[in-house]
Amino acid sequence: MPEDHFGERVAARYDETSAEMFDPAVVEPAVDFLAELAGEGAALELGIGTGRIALPLARRGVRLHGIDLSEAMVARLREKPGGEEISVTIGDFATTKVDGTFALAYLVWNTINNLTTQDGQVACFENVAAHLEPGGCFVIEVGVPKLRRLPPGQTFVPFDVSPEHLGFDEYDVVAQGLISHHYYPGAGEQVSMPFRYVWPAELDLMARIAGMSRRERWSGWKREPFTAESRKHVSVWQKTS
Ligand SMILES: C[S@@+](CC[C@H](N)C(=O)[O-])C[C@H]1O[C@@H](n2cnc3c(N)ncnc32)[C@H](O)[C@@H]1O
Fold first, then answer.
1. pLDDT, tens digit, for every residue of 136-183?
2. Cβ of 115 below 6 Å from ligand 1
3. Residue 16: which residues within 8 A CB-CB, separation 6 or more?
């Protein structure tokens, strides 16, 4: 099992430190997009966490199952209204099997990057394909690697500098890895988390290896065009075999 980086200390402050991601203006377009793809079918969320997306999606009537490594994050989901009704399997979403098949599987907010090896990310696509119905869709929301912001010889890119929070990504361009360092001066907290950044075209190839093909790529949940300046993408692959 991979190391759990979302233990009690992170889970206890997750919703508070991610408050802008819980804004209905952020959540609702994602839920609209996912609900439309799920249709009458069931959905599988990889890395369900505290239910930021799962709870409003379940309120739309979508039948949901979640997978997460962190008991502490899922405990926070359980405390929320409707959180007890969502079935969750504790395990690694690259390998964990659950009962049933799904019209939709999704992995939001850079969570594919939590798998820190290419093999792990490929295994995740293969695991998703094994759970999808023919024609079922896999959706990933993930940032475009910010290597254009990295001058030669430099390894750190600041992504948030405010009195409450200092955030720096530390890049390892040889191993295609990065560590996100977060400092919260007010709380006296520091969290560093490892990731593997991944290119859009690399994800398309992983999908192909797993028997899926790309159906859509946008720069946001409202189907904004994906361009050379896009900082993230929302991509949809469909199970073809
Ligand atoms: C950034 S949080 C996202 C949570 C939720 N999807 C959201 O949008 O708020 C990432 C979640 O993925 C889980 N996670 C990370 N790596 C995992 C893995 N290999 N298997 C299962 N869950 C994992 C973490 O425990 C955490 O709950």
1. 999 999 999 999 999 999 999 999 999 999 999 999 999 999 999 999
2. yes
3. none
